[in-house]
Each structure stands twice: as structure tokens, then as C-alpha cells.
Amino acid sequence: MSRFWSQTVRDLTPYVPGEQPKIANLIKLNTNEHPCPPSPRVLAAIRAELGDDGGRLRLYPAPNADLLKAAIARRYAVAPQQVFVGNGSDEVLAHIFMALLKHAAPILFPDITYSFYPVYCGLYGIKHRAVPLAADFSVNPDDYCGPANGGVILANPNAPTGRLLPLAAIERIAAANPDAVVVIDEAYIDFGGESAIPLTARHDNLLVVHTLSKSRSLAGLRVGYAIGHPDLIEALERVKNSFNSYPLDRLALVGAVAAIEDEDYFQAACQQVIASRERLTARLTTLGFAVLPSAANFIFARHPQHDADQLAQALRQRNIIVRHFKQPRIEQFLRITIGSEAECVALADALRDITG
Ligand SMILES: *Cc1c(COP(=O)(O)O)cnc(C)c1O
What we know:
- This protein is an alpha/beta fold.
- It has helices at residues 7-11, 40-50, 66-76, 89-100, 116-124, 167-176, 230-240, 250-261, 263-286, 308-317, 341-355; strands at residues 27-29, 83-86, 107-110, 128-131, 151-155, 182-185, 206-211, 224-228, 290-291, 298-302, 320-322, 334-337.
- The mean pLDDT is 97.
- The structure holds pyridoxal-5'-phosphate.
- The site of pyridoxal-5'-phosphate (PLP) has 12 residues, from α4.
């Protein structure tokens, strides 16, 4: 606290990201990064952009990211005017809250979901109502189809539970809220869900958000995008061009295009994570853990006889980091990112020793 701080800054409760420790031989299963490197075409594209002397870095990048928008539009069979891109999907989400979710009525999202949503509400002064998930941590679509609200945002699959909401439920929520924007944050959709992007053709209030951080192995490049009706995209462009005209740098732009275009590599890398997830789920179940059904690149698990905080500390002593949220309803769960097969085996071996 300082006398120089504005009242806005005094009132903020910032998001706390998972830690990024610099410890050798660490098994890092706490922030849902992909165990595989990105497509080799990403590296080739970045090297080509750098050239021999990096001289192109003198020049500003394309302000409207036209080539990237075109690549995303081709991949999802939409028009380029239906695509917005930003510096990570966190930035895309920030612009969405500002541009489309700040109204008189409160917006709705689950009590247990991505913890950045209430942070954006605090930053922009947006009223919200946290809707409790069911006892099994599923979303009940009826909870979002009631009286008019300022908007709805759902992570699907949800974080940190990993549970998937079927497309039919999303369509029902979009249809029940014709005068409010329904945002579906699909950060983890490529690990077993079906995207709601095709529904945006029928619902002009539906906006779908993706990131290259998880399924495209590019958390360090910072690229995310949103797909929806051109009027929604125009609102986001207005905010972006009132904030930062060049949110994506030259290397991010060419790397992202290469990642989007390498479909075979992407599919194989996702399948590897899905296969590891199923093996790890089976193994932890035999160790006595209750594991929620996951369609993401992480699992959410608890052990009926062992305290989650103590499990997390015991793992840390073995150089394995997982995420534990000290939050009501979920303080007995661990969120475990699906790492490489060797990392999953090391984690399960450690949990066998700790709980055995
Ligand atoms: C990881 C994550 C994001 C943020 O992704 P970035 O593109 O890296 O900013 C957004 N939403 C959810 C639910 C996430 O888990």
C-alpha cells in the first residue's frame, strides 16, 4: 500500500497464477502446460521471421493480425470477421468482460470455476452472482436459463474440475438468454470435448474463447482468440484499439499460424495426453482416489483417507508440484496436470508410497 495508489488499485484482488519455480528435476504438474513441445513448424516459422539479423523486429507487427485470423477462420470454417485474437486468452477474456459483460444486471458463473473471472469483475466493477455447482460438480443448465442477467461465462470443460457440459446444454443456455452474451471458455476443449464454435452460426449472442497455451503447447507464446458474431468481435476490436494496437508480436503471429495449420501434429499431441489421462485415472483409482471424470489435460482427485494439503506437501518434498486450492468445497482435492507418461508414472508411484 502506498499513498500513490489509486482507489482502483487499492480495491483490486489480483489473480494468483500457479507458481513457476526454477528447481532442477522438478516434475511440474501445477499449471496445465502440455508435456510435448509445440509443432516443429512453429520453430521453423519463428526462425524464418527472425531471418539472419532479426531486422524485421525493427518493424511493428500487423496491427490486425490478418494472416492469423485467416488461418483460424479456415481451421474452424468461419469468416475472418468472426475472429478476434489477443495476447493470451486471458487478455481476450479481459476485453470480453469490459466490452460485453459490463451491464446493470449481474453476470452469472459457477461458484467453482476459473478464478480469473471474479478478478475481471473486480477490475471493471462488474456485478456477478456465483451459481453453486451441483454436488457432483456438474453445471445445471437450468440455473442459467432463469430471469434476465448481464451475461453468462462458463469454462467448458470447467476448471479446475475437468467436467464437460454437453453441447445441447450450451445451446439451451444461449437460446434462453437472447439479450445477453454467453461466453464459453474452451481452454481445454481439445482434450475430449466438442467445440461450441459451430453454434455461433445460429446464436448471435454466443462467443467461444480458445487458447494456444494448453492443447497447442504454446503457453510461453501468449496467443488466444475468440469466435462469434461479427458484432461481438467488433466490440472487442474497439476495446483492443483503445488499449494496445499491437498485442501480438511478430514471433507470436507467425508461430501461431504454424501451430494452427499443423493439424496432424496437434491431433497426435492431444491423443497422447488423453491416453495418459486415462491410464493415470485408472491407476489413482486403484490407489483409492476418487477422480472426477475429466475431458481436460488435468484431473481433479481426492483421497478419502488423506488430507489434500498434506498430500501436496508430501509430493513437493519429492519434487512434484500439483495445484491445491484452499477454497470451500474443493479443499480436499488436488488438481494434477497430465504430464509426460514418465511424469505420470512418477506421480502415481509417489502417491502410492505416500498413501500406502
Ligand atoms: C489457462 C486458462 C486460460 C488462460 O490461457 P492463456 O491463453 O494462457 O491466457 C483461460 N481460461 C481457462 C479456463 C484456463 O484454464
